[in-house]
Design brief:
This protein has 18 helices and 43 strands. With 908 residues, it is of the alpha+beta class. The strands form 10 sheets. Strands 37, 38, 39, 40, 41, 42 and 43 form a 7-stranded mixed sheet that branches. Strands 3-2-6-11-8-9 form a 6-stranded antiparallel sheet, with no helix packed on it. A hairpin with a 2-residue loop joins strand 8 (114-118) and strand 9 (121-126).
Length: 908
């Protein structure tokens, strides 16, 4: 290329020195052609029909692409106007007379790889995808009219891995759009760029990044630094309450480019207590950083990659290195840009990762860097060159161990029994001290949560843009075919309310960890890809699902959070209760002298505290020997000046109740918005009374005779010596109930289909895949076992000892007393507790071994409540069935569900 054709594809920060700019937004001509064809390489050869398009925009938003051939897609939303290949956008431009002899720059804020022509002559090409592309037009482009042509190709120009391994491109979220979005302008180039361009051909070389000075820093980012295991800013320790961002914009299929749009998005984050956003394998535009600067939210952009960091792949390495330089130079002046990662869950050459970080640190020494977020899935641990570590574990652990973990929930492929929350008896003492205390650098919990909820089909009407929810339609039809469509709203509500409690538990585990520096949730927002992962407390539009409120969520996701540490939540009358009260204080000031008020209220019935002592480490504050009451309260004084995790005091006492009672213990710091609450259950202490009911492990002839003679039978098939656990509806011929699934306490992780594939490929047990229970809390079976319509902590022993029964062969309108919600892939009707009239008798089937569950107070209470119900006049099943019919339906093979493999990019 001749030196006289001065070309610039510049990844440089705009210094604001331009005297003038001309917007090119508006109507353009567009021609579609195949990627790599002569059309893309030629000067002005037309290869197709000339159409009109509005820019900024995409082929999708202009509805110029092609209608989908597959309307059965469930792995992600479907593009209604998809296009992949080259598109030539053209229009006439007019260079003003007063720009004569001045360098003119073409500014494209965000696009795909481009080739720019002026009057039929190729100017240059550029493949920057994370930052604006800038072209310095040739000197011979004089004032007056010229033909500007921009070929945009979303099928070539970047390494092949990037198309499916970056949220800058993936169809799972942002989509692989073709177009130009954001600002499209002609600008007078700055004097610095102009001077550089006089002596160079091609791209102008990099120069030092413009970093914000101390005077420019707002308080939230002032003196942002690391000391040991923690981040600090403005003289105080901070805790990153983060969310994962995957570029989910369902209406446009491309990232929002306006400050207004990002203020709305990040403003919603802030309403829910979020002060940090991690951009998974992509970098947001300028508008995001501007909004974050204003709202005080810390951003962590990443290189646009997820996969093998292979030093031998020179093309990939060069591309990623250039993208990193561009990101730092373009956005490094923003106070919100404090951290950066090399991508998501990388594996490959660790020395090469360090080399990248070392290079980037030279460009922008004010930033903190880590290797890929959760690189090697955490197994490689901390390496030299990492300022902080975003991870789910720190080094490897033996199977069945949790000592390296930094989050409470995992897939069954990643951790035994799906992690600590699903495995251990419910408590609020678990933390990650064992892993984090040894780290020495800040640890951020990676992709915390991932608790599924059943989708809300009412959301479908929101999809009025370029993406269509065919996945929702398929899932809805499946549910209808299974005879449960009328329960869809209840499935959504019950699974959603339970998922909120699970998120609370996972977040509080982080807050109870003294040397934890933050978390990055996956997610408060639904993820529409990877099989459709409905893991958000908000939908894909960042709007409420009706399962929580900002006020409730901020109880445990705020700068200051009161915490109650208890070894369990369920007690028997007369049992000593010991709890520690702490505060996660990252609010920027001492709480010394504040009063922490506790309030205890019975949601049903009455209670009293016998010789209850409520004290701080500095002395007793309250002693209570009371009569039965509906509520009580008291105060603990905060004596500590400390920030971080602060010890406040203890609550010790003996509860007394006359009947099974649910209590709500609320903690709030007077004069502040800091408050939090915990649910407790107290049951009368008494031996199980089983008279009047026949309890059977097998449906043998003797039991059948009892039913024939009008008896009442509680049948627990899983307690039988013949029972063999059947996970994932595999037939176990020796079982009287051969078709069951496993008992899963938490809701299924991320997406059942994807992690079923991963588990099977790694010869690991597959998750039971369920989403919690659905029941009628007013049903008389619960008179001795207070419950909501959904799972809560008191259900743990019952569910963990269960194998829910597949009821697909029973009448479509039959509903179990306690139903288990299945995932969107299988849609089995699952029962935990069922009842029928059998001849003259009455049969209740419980798919949990209640003898084992009764080792816990809550398990025994449920067992007794079931028996009491069966002895009462309320036990009057409305559905009749014969023993032969029951046995036949239990033995029949249920509806078969065939799932195609769905793989993850990460190596498992």
């Amino acid at each position: 290329m001749k030196k006289t054709i001065l070309i610039a594809c510049l990844g440089l920060v705009s210094l604001g020195l331009q005297a003038q700019s001309i917007s090119l937004a508006g109507e353009w001509n567009v021609e579609l052609g195949k990627s790599g064809s002569a059309f893309a390489k030629s000067k002005r050869v037309s290869q197709g029909e000339v159409k009109r398009a509005i820019l900024p925009g995409t082929i999708d938003t202009n509805r110029l692409g092609f209608a989908p051939k597959d309307t059965m897609e469930t792995t992600h939303l479907t593009r209604l106007y998809a296009y992949k290949g080259a598109a030539r956008y053209s229009r006439t431009i007019n260079i003003p007379k007063d720009w004569k002899k001045k360098p003119v720059e073409l500014f494209l804020e965000r696009t795909r790889p481009t080739w720019v022509y002026v009057d039929g002559e190729l100017v240059d090409s550029c493949n920057f995808i994370s930052t604006p592309q800038r072209y310095l037009l040739p000197k011979k482009v004089k004032p007056g009219k010229h033909l500007l042509e921009i070929v945009v190709d979303n099928g070539r120009g970047v390494p092949d891995q990037v198309y499916g391994s970056s949220h800058a491109y993936t169809e799972d979220t942002q989509t692989n759009w073709n177009g130009i979005i954001g600002r499209i302008e002609l600008q007078l180039a700055s004097s610095v760029e102009s001077k550089s361009a006089e002596t160079l051909t091609g791209a102008i070389p990099s120069r030092s990044v413009a970093s914000p000075s101390a005077l420019q820093m707002p308080d939230f980012a002032r003196d942002f630094h690391i000391e040991g295991a923690h981040f600090y800013a403005n003289g105080h320790r901070i805790f990153l309450r983060g969310k994962h961002d995957a570029a989910v914009w369902p209406l446009t299929g491309h990232v929002e480019m306006s400050v207004e749009g990002w203020m709305k998005y990040l403003g919603t984050c802030k309403e829910y207590g979020i002060n940090h956003v991690r951009f998974h394998s992509w970098c947001p535009p300028e508008a995001a950083f501007v909004a974050a600067d204003s709202l005080g939210i810390y951003l962590q952009p990443e290189l646009p990659f997820w996969g093998s960091f292979d030093k031998k792949d020179e093309r990939l390495m060069a591309f990623l290195h250039q993208e990193g330089e561009n990101i730092l130079r373009e956005y490094g002046h923003h106070p919100s840009f404090r951290m950066m990662a090399l991508g998501n869950e990388l594996w490959g050459d660790i020395d090469k990762m360090k080399e990248f970080v070392d290079d980037f640190r030279k460009i922008a020494p004010d930033k903190y860097y880590t290797f890929g977020s959760n690189y090697y899935l955490g197994y490689q641990g901390i390496k030299e060159g990492m300022d902080y570590f975003t991870t789910c574990r720190i080094g490897g652990e033996g199977w069945g161990k949790y000592n390296t973990h930094t989050r409470g929930s995992f897939s069954f492929a990643d951790a035994y029994d799906g992690g600590m929350i699903n495995h251990f008896h419910p408590n609020s003492t678990m933390n990650f001290d064992e892993a984090c205390d040894k780290a020495g650098i800040p640890i951020i919990s990676h992709e915390t949560g991932q608790f599924q909820t059943y989708p809300d089909y009412r959301e479908m009407k929101k999809y009025t843009g370029v993406l269509h929810p065919y996945n929702f339609e398929v899932f809805r039809r499946r549910l209808a075919a299974a005879g449960m469509l009328s329960q869809a709203d209840d499935f959504h509500k019950a699974s959603g309310l339970w998922s909120v409690k699970l998120y609370k538990a996972d977040i509080e585990m982080d807050l109870r960890t003294r040397n934890m520096a933050g978390f990055q949730l996956l997610d408060i927002q639904d993820y529409p890809g990877q099989g459709s992962a409905f893991v958000g407390i908000l939908d894909a539009f960042m709007e409420s699902k009706g399962i929580t409120t900002p006020e409730e969520w901020r109880q445990w996701c705020s700068p200051v959070v009161p915490l109650l540490e208890m070894k369990k939540f369920c007690f028997e009358d007369g049992e000593n209760i010991q709890a520690k009260v702490k505060v996660a204080n990252y609010g920027g000031s001492s709480l010394k002298g504040k009063k922490l008020k506790w309030h205890l209220a019975a949601e049903n019935g009455l209670f009293c505290m016998d010789d209850g002592t409520f004290s701080t480490k500095d002395g007793e504050v309250r002693k209570n020997v009371g009569d039965l009451m509906a509520e009580d309260e008291g105060v603990l004084n905060i004596f500590s000046y400390d920030e971080g995790l602060v010890d406040v005091g203890e609550l010790n006492g003996v509860f007394h109740v006359q009947k099974p009672t649910k209590l709500l213990l609320t903690l709030n710091i007077e004069g502040t918005e800091a408050r939090n609450s915990y649910e407790l259950w107290v049951y009368p202490k008494k031996a199980l009374e089983k008279k009047g009911v026949i309890i059977a492990k097998d449906l043998n002839e003797e039991v059948v005779k009892v039913l024939e003679h009008g008896g009442k039978v509680l049948w627990m098939p899983t307690a039988s010596s013949h029972f063999v656990a059947a996970d994932d509806t595999l037939s176990q011929a020796d079982n009287a109930t051969p078709y069951t699934v496993g008992g899963l306490f938490q809701t299924d992780y991320w997406n059942y289909r994807m992690f079923k594939t991963i588990c099977e490929n790694n010869k690991k047990k597959v998750s039971p895949g369920t989403l919690g229970i659905l029941t009628n809390s007013e049903h008389p079976i619960f008179k001795g076992f207070p419950t909501e319509m959904h799972t809560n902590w008191q259900w743990f022993p019952v569910i963990k000892e269960s194998h829910p029964l597949v009821l697909d062969n029973f009448a479509k309108d039959y509903r179990p007393v306690v139903q288990v919600i299945d995932n969107i892939e299988r849609n089995h009707k699952l029962g935990l507790v069922m009842e029928w009239k059998v001849g003259a008798g009455k049969l209740l089937v419980c798919m949990s071994d209640l003898e084992k569950a009764a080792k816990y107070p809550e398990g025994k209470a449920f067992y007794q409540s079931v028996i009491d119900y069966m002895r009462s006049a309320d036990f009057n099943p409305s559905t009749e069935i014969t023993v032969d019919e029951l046995k036949k339906k239990l033995a029949e093979k249920p509806r078969q569900v065939s799932l195609k493999e769905l793989n993850n990019i990460s190596q498992y």
